Amino acid sequence: MAFSVSTLKGVKVYNLTFGKTAEQWKEEQRAGNIHSLRYNEAYRRRVEFIQDAVFPTSSLQVKMSADGMWMMATGLYPFKLKMFDLSELTIKFERGLESEPIDTCFLSENWEKFVVLRDHRWMEFHSRHGKHYNMRLPLIGTCMAYNQPMCELYTGTIKNIVLRANLEQGRYYSPFETGLEHISCIDMDRTHLLLACGDINGVVECWDPRQKRAIAKLDMFDSIPSISPTPEVTKLRFGTDGLSLAVGLGSGHVGVYDLRRSKPLHVLNHRNKIGIRDIHFHQQSSKIISSDAKTIRYWDQSSGQLYTVITPAEPINNLAVVENSGVIFVAQEQHRIGAYYVPSVGIAPKWCPFLDSMTEELEESKYKSIYVDYKFVSRDELEALGLEHLIGSNILKPYMHGYFMDIKLYRRVRSIVDPDAYDKFLKSKTEQQIAEQRTGRIKVASKLPNVNKAYANYLLQTKGEEQDTDLNPFVDPRFSSMFKDDDFKIDFSGDKYLHYHPEIKYAMDKAQYQHLMQHRNMDREEDAQKNGEQEEEDGSMQDGDDDDDILVDGAGDTYDDKFLQAKEHASVLVDGYTQQTALPTLLGSDDENDPVRNDDDDEKHESNDEDEAIDLDQYDVVTDDENAEDEEEDDDEEDGVMRRLDDNQQQENEN
User: Fold this and answer.
1) Packing angle of the helix pair 625-654, 599-622 (nearest 10 deg)
2) pLDDT at position 114
């Protein structure tokens, strides 16, 4: 955006004519300074607020029509007058002038009728078709004011006379003979049609056109004695309320008066000691806008406090304020007519509604363009590049959870640390393009994406009702990269947050976790069965061996030593035995669920019981009294279990 923003006292001012015009760009291209405008970013981002609002040398004056849809501007050299259609933001027509224009005035609410006061005692009347009439003045004119209800045009002269021309009858009336020496400025109030005239000696006279006489006189020497010597009156402006009058002085002061008092309400000081060029009352914001050759100042009308200041680069000649808006036009000593917008003073005009959206866009994109040539790097990536020693220096700019570094430096370091990064990038891009080409093929639609399957499964389970709505992240394009791009893959092992919050991982992968736990339990049961069968085989091998002193391992331990060690940890062995090896499995409890039992199975079962009894008797021989008592209790428990099994078997046989 080709708008510049300046801020003073918290008030933002947008310069709508910042940058070069299209003609300037073309001249630079013809001079060879620019190779091509097609690829010039500054040229493509330029904004011309009003098309062709330029003059060869400078602009002298700008005026707004009563309806606020037309702007008239004069400039030089050569002397020209331009009319702009603000609804189209372009020029309506351009007309040449024979001599330097001094003042202009609209005679209608639009552009169809206006008058131009020129040097060498000439006045031109213009209409729709062009110049309508040239009129010769008896005296050199300095300023003009138009009384629309009475259809009279007043012209101030270099003497004490105000010329009166009745445009309805087409003739002069008798002039107003004032007590002033040299009339420098005049202004007409729209409410009560009071005419104010100021001269070079600091005196203001107010005339009533109906009585054709002066009704009041104001001398700056008596009104503002603090200003010495008495300056000349350079500008007069009536307020929109019919009771206010602003008097601009050659010393850089502005006196704000109530017509019912002779003393000023406020004395506004520009502090430049330069004469006031123009004054306007802004009704919507209750502000007074005054300008000298260097600055444009906004004042609060009620308190007289300074609101903000606009300082153009070139000297100022004249102002034009768009009513009920924050836009002003400035005639300057440069080829281009200036335009400024103060949003806090008023909204955008009705013929330019997009101005507010453009300034808002500029405000939003301002922070995005601060680090346009920088790369955001997190702290982990910074350590991977070996640049952690730069933390705290001017090379890295802290921002949120990382840093901004120059993009050129980042690319150079990246090429040194990872020289194959570009090849990897090309490979990934190639794979991505191949995958996009394969999208047209017929394939089986998969419910879960390739990236973040666990999280996708969790979303489908928790938000299954929203699968076809915009709330579903699979449908919302803002979150589509999370299930397509590997850079967004969730790292369950490396993410510190998930490490300290494992319940999140469990919630996202609950189904897979439960499936995994079921397989683990089945594997444990199979291992327990294998261990039980191995123990039975070891027990049967011990029955045929009467030698208790056979070594078990190279440490010199025998079976008796192993048995005594096992008794010392009896509680641990019993717990592990009951948890990992089910007792009914050892005693043939699998047959309980078998509806058909063969005699061979009964014989095998009886032989196994005898083997267990022999083992217990054998170990009773070698144990002490306490161990013998424990084993007797175990025998009683086993006998009880056998009785219950026999009873169950008998019931099954009967059934």
Assistant:
1) 170
2) 94
- Dihedral angle at the C-alpha atoms of 308, 314, 319, 323, nearest 10 degrees? -50
- Classify each residue of 165-202 as buried b or exposed e, where b means 16 or more C-beta atoms within 10 Å of its C-beta: bebeeeeeeebbebebeebbbbbbbeeebbbbbbbbbb
Residues 140-156, mean pLDDT to the nearest whole number? 92
- For residue 6, give the nearest of 394, 492, 510, 343 by alpha carbon: 343
> What local confidence, expressed as pLDDT, does residue 411 receive?
84
189-195: average pLDDT: 90
Residue 282: CA atoms inside 13 Å, Cβ hemisphere, count?
A: 27
Task: Say if pTM beats, i.e. exceeds, 0.85.
Answer: no
* Side chain identity, residue 576: G
Asked if residue 113 lies in contact with residue 106, where contact means CB atoms within 8 angstroms, the answer is: yes
Tokens (6 digits) for 436:
């996009």
Q: Check residues 474 and 18 and name the one with the higher pLDDT.
A: 18
Q: Which two tokens stand for residue 364?
A: 């939003």
Rounded to the nearest 10°, the torsion over CA 408, 414, 419, 421 is -100
In angstroms, rounded to a whole number, what is the distance separating the alpha carbons of residues 203 and 225? Answer: 13
Question: How does residue 586 score in pLDDT terms, banded at 50, 70 and 90?
Answer: very low
Instruction: Examine the pLDDT at 607 and tell me if it is beyond 60.
Output: no
Each as own residue / partner, the long-range contacts of residues 265-272 (CB below 8 Å, 24 or more positions apart, any chain) are 265/304, 266/299, 266/303, 266/304, 267/224, 267/226, 267/304, 268/297, 268/299, 268/304, 270/295, 270/297
User: Which letter does DSSP use for residue 179 in this model?
Assistant: S
| SS3 assignment, position 135 | strand
Q: Token pair of 250, please?
A: 């050659």
Q: Please give the DSSP secondary-structure letter assigned to residue 438.
A: G
2 vs 109, residue with greater confidence = 109
Distance CA(341)–CA(327), nearest Å, equals: 4
Q: What is the mean pLDDT of the chain?
A: 77
3-state secondary structure of 377: strand
**Rg of the Cα atoms in the chain:** 50
Percentage above 70 pLDDT, the chain:
69
Cβ atoms 132, 170 nearer than 8 A: no
Q: Are 147 and 209 in contact (CB under 8 A)?
A: yes
pLDDT at 634: 60
User: Percent helix, strand, coil in the chain (nearest 5)?
Assistant: 35, 30, 40
The Cα 227–Cα 236 span in angstroms is 18
Q: Which two tokens stand for residue 34?
A: 């620019």
- How many residues appear in the chain? 655
Of the candidates 569, 570, 576, 567, the one whose C-alpha atom is nearest the C-alpha of residue 619 is 567
Q: Which of 628, 624, 15, 602 is nearest to 314 (CA)?
A: 15
